[in-house]
Amino acid sequence: MLYPQRLGQFTREHADTVAALLCGLLLFLGWFALHLGWLGLAFLLLPAAYVIGGYESAREGLTTLFKEKELDVDLLMIVAAIGAASLGLWRGEYHLIIDGAILILIFAISGALEGYAMQRTERSIRSLMSLTPDTARVLHQGREEEVPISQLKVGDEIVVKPGELIPTDGIILSGYSTLNQAAITGESLPVEKTVGAEVFAGTLNGYGGLQIKVHKPAQSSLIVRVIRLVEQAKTEAPPSQEFIDRLEKGYAKVIVVAGILLATLPPFLWGRDWETTIYRALTFLVVASPCALMAAIMPTLLSGIANGARQGILFKNGAQLEKIGKVRAIAFDKTGTLTTGQVQVFQVISVSEYTEINVLKTAASVESYSEHPIGKAIVQAAGNLDWVGAVQVQAIPGQGIVGIAQEQQVIVGNAVFVQQYVTNLPEELREMAQSLEQEGKTVVWVAKNPIPNSSLQALRGADVMGIIAIADEVRMEAAVTITRLKKLGIEQIVMLTGDNQETAYSIAKAVGIDRVYAQLLPEDKLDVIRRLQQQYQTVAMVGDGINDAPALAQASVGIAMGISGSDVALETADIVLMADRLEKIAVAMHLGRRSQSIVKQNIFVALGFIMLLLVGNFLGNINLPIGVIGHEGSTVLVTLSGLRLLK
């Protein structure tokens, strides 16, 4: 019972190949019957070869003709084959029927080979879809239950055992492990993750068991969005392919008209015999068809998209792969793009009677109640120290925070805020703070004052303990990326930020960017992109936040950070860097340029073959089968050439 099922499955999966094999077998048997003079058997076998080998092409050609009122290459091939067979029957020269059958056979083989070639790209893309399991283990009242992924709800707690795939995006509640994120983000090395870290569906858990809380619907997970966008990229034709498609429609009509003229005029104008004239006209229909030209672009771009997806670069469509290879200027957002967007304690400086540890512990006692990123950075830096949380904490937005800890009033904030509580700020600390701020750091002052009672009041004469410098960490790969982009010949690299001038110039200097636009609103970033486009035409924008969305949309190519990026930025951008790795921008540009180069090579080869075959046909040096081999061979060659981008 299994054998017929497997045979049926093989036939469905390889229908084009089976049709080509049957066509070839029937053609050989028909030729053999003609050779032996068995005309009845030959006239039974050869039509069957025509039908089996040419059915799919005839169906597609007729569908296009009746539904879209357009001629296409498939129909031209069938017309040429039937014309050859008709000519053979009319003149009693049955070898022409064989020629027509050979045309059908080679066209069928070519179609099967092209199908297999494109399946390589399809498999690379479809491999994304096998990255998530169908079910997840959900903890329900202390027991594990297998639940389909589609039924997971926000707040569900799931268990992932060592060696299993993460079923959906979530936050680790307990456990420690290393996760292989290569399939999603393109990172080659496993990443260590523990409590509080976000994990992504489709990543492979290492040696540790994890308990994960679902924090977004399964259909909103990163891998699902990737699959949706890649599927969209497959169906959207880039401008170059749309141009070729439009060209084909007009070109096919020209070929048909030219073929009719070539089949009717020579006998009247030059007295040529009808058989040779019609045969040459049929050969013209074959060799002039733009099959290779049609295959010059999409296999290449789809291969590039699949290659990018494997490296953590998501192209939303082929047009963006084309455009990124033409980029002449690129703009970077600062926070979350050139920097990690996560502030941390850079330096702690104390006055003589206090230690740096004292300063950090005191600041953490009040900042532990703050939701501000600076407060979180201070608490994180003091994480291993022994400090006591303050009481009666009051935060003044944009200025600072005060509270009572160990019968001391603690004041933490900017210089202006702290000056309300102290007699004066030490001059030496002022100079150090000013120097740090010029380097782009944010300086937080820390002071304390003994308090005789529990009432919180603005007391004067507090002691300044020291300052804490906070910095947004520059991405390690940022400087290397800028250097690579300059080597690639990018003419202008700029930084856009809403931050102040000092911080902006400090970061720009660190990464090697010369041109900076600071203190920008979202609409200001949009204006800068427009001005760059007027000067450089094709401009890329790299960003991660909601405030970057207008500029991402305006840019010729919008590039978003996949992990740190906001949903708005991800939806607006044309390309997504799945692992937030800036160096992948240079890889994407190389892919874009290489795809352009291969497309140009393919078009040159396709047009060259067409011209060569046309000249050979008019000189009478090729017959119909040779014309078909040259035509279909060039198509397969161009398709395989496009698949070079898979490597």
Account of the protein in words:
The chain is an alpha+beta fold. The chain is 53% helix and 18% strand. The strands form 4 sheets. A 7-stranded mixed β-sheet has the order 10-22-21-20-11-18-19, sandwiched between helices. The two termini are 41 Å apart.
Q: How much of the polypeptide forms β-strand, as a percent range?
A: 15-25%
Sheet having the most strands:
7 strands, mixed
In whole angstroms, the N-to-C terminal distance is 41 Å
Number of helices: 24
Average pLDDT figure: 79
> Which strand order spans the largest sheet, edge to edge or round the barrel?
10-22-21-20-11-18-19
Key terms:
18% strand; elongated; 647 residues; six-stranded antiparallel β-sheet; alpha+beta; single chain; seven-stranded mixed β-sheet; 53% helix
Write a short abstract of this structure.
With 647 residues, this protein is α+β, with helices and mostly antiparallel strands. Helices cover 53% and strands 18% of the residues.
